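Entry for the shared binder. Reason: the reviewer on the internal report wants the predicted structure included alongside the sequence.
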Amino acid sequence: MNDFIIDSFSKLRNYCEKEEYIGWDPYDGLNSKVFNTMPGIISKRKWPRIFITQLLKHSPLNFRKILGVEKGLNPKGIALFLTGYCNLYKISQDEILKEKITYLANKLIELQTTGYSGSCWGYNFPWQSRAFYQERYSPTVVVSCFAAYALLDAYEIVGDDNFLKIGLSSKDFVLNDLNRKYDEKGLIFSYSPFDNTEIINASLLGAKVLSRCYSYTGDKALIEIAKQAVLYASNLQEKDGSWPYGQLHYQNWVDSFHTGFNLEAIYDYQKYSGDNSFSSCIEKGLSYYMKNFIMDDGTPKYYHDEKYPIDIHCPAQYISTLITLEKNDPSIKKTLVWTLENMQGKKGYFYFQKKKFFKIKTPYMRWTQAWAFYAISKYLWLYGTSNRITFTE
């Protein structure tokens, strides 16, 4: 079975390297040249923006070429690939991997959004949610967290001080540019500098950045603020261990991968701070996560109460979360094998979603390929199955 996993990963790696990590995204509809030539009453309004984005996201047919949506480099996707290569280097110490790590780290630095207190990143497309609108490359704490982590991972392998400097600078973005809401017990960070939403996983990713930066700097102010964000989020955890996505009335759903984000962030706070006061929060959340988002045969669920859609992000996050939390459970391999057998095409790339009656096979780079690469590399790193992994020049 390990041969099957390694062969599948090699096909994915070959596809991504051939494409040079450039691709479409489920949410890149507002990059459409056709849509943007429409009158402002359409192209600059909230609901038409949401409509075109969701149409392209949910369609089994890919209309992006017709609508003038070009492929691009997504900073979060590059960050996931970068961490993935770092995982692989920990197994084999292959010098070719060092070259790839250096290349991707420098590419990620080039993709920074400038003009803020610290290093930060955003998506390579504008996007509209029900809560707010973001211009192309508007920085968010989500993208910035993954980018900062990837650069610190790269620093630990390559030793380039610039990677360390820029990775650590992300703490200043979190501290100075994100909005905050306080209560008597803690605080919650906004998603970006341009909104005041209370999205739990986003705030916890801010705490995650501060926690890891603390492990380098020893600045106690960082870990104290991170604790306040973790405390706020822990108070929003339901009795069954779940978290809603956010605090607005239409953000009360519970999904798989955002639950995974929450668990990893709190675990990292605990790991870097040495503060175990949230261990019961982690245990309760992990129990809920494992019981509600993976079926007995390894099928991953998006929502706690629905089987469909089956989304590639969910098994990837599940594998990552259990490994991060040091939960060596048989469901990790079962979920990975199910995903390889059901969500990977013959050309090596992974499908976006499996609906009840059809699959969306558009080869998205950030959402699908990068997450699959990240998760499988983490699995290979854990189990040390590197003897048959080869790397192209």
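Summary line for the report: The first helix runs from residue 2 to 19.
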